[in-house]
Amino acid sequence: MTKQAIIQKLEEGRLKKNLPEFKVGDSLRVHTRIIEGDKERVQVFTGTVIARKGTGLSETFSLHRVAFGEGMERVFLLHSPRIAKLEVIKRGDVRRGKLYYLRGTHGKKSKVKALHGFDQETPAGAKVEASQKEIEA
Question: Keywords of this protein's UniProt record, alphabetized (predicted)?
Fold first, then answer.
């Protein structure tokens, strides 16, 4: 058995299974667990997916948003136990794999066209919560 096959086999048990399907250009709402001292709270970050990188356990995605006139970006590990919930808000109609050009834009330039025919009640756009078993693991 090769080294790569062994790593893949070990990662299989830690991958989240109930993640919504999303791609670059979609708008997401990510609920993140924040631990401050003894308290734990959930913070929501909403933005447009501008990149997806990696495979397996180390897969990441970058969200971009403009708030108070300032652009901000955040990178999340897709299979992280810190992510409580992922919601797909809007499907984007883009023709590129990475949307780094959104970094310097604001106003109407920073908008991504919506994909027609997307309904939030469809299984791909449904809200998905991480099970308690995955959180503890």
Answer: Ribonucleoprotein, Ribosomal protein
How many Å apart are CA 64 and CA 58, to the nearest integer?
20
CB burial of residue 116 (10 Å; 0-12, 13-18, 19+):
exposed
Give percent helix, percent strand, percent coil of the chain, each to the nearest 5: 20, 40, 40
Residue 69 gets the label, from left (phi > 0), alpha (psi -120 to 50) or beta, of left
Whether domain 16-132 has CATH 1.20.120.1460: no
The beta-strand segments (E) located in 22-69 are 27-36, 39-53, 60-67
Which pair of structure tokens corresponds to residue 5? 């096959």
Helix (H, G, I), strand (E, B) or coil at 79: coil
What is the model's pTM? Answer: 0.78
Identify the residue whose tokens are 């109930």: 18
Q: Residue ranges of the domains in the chain?
A: 16-132
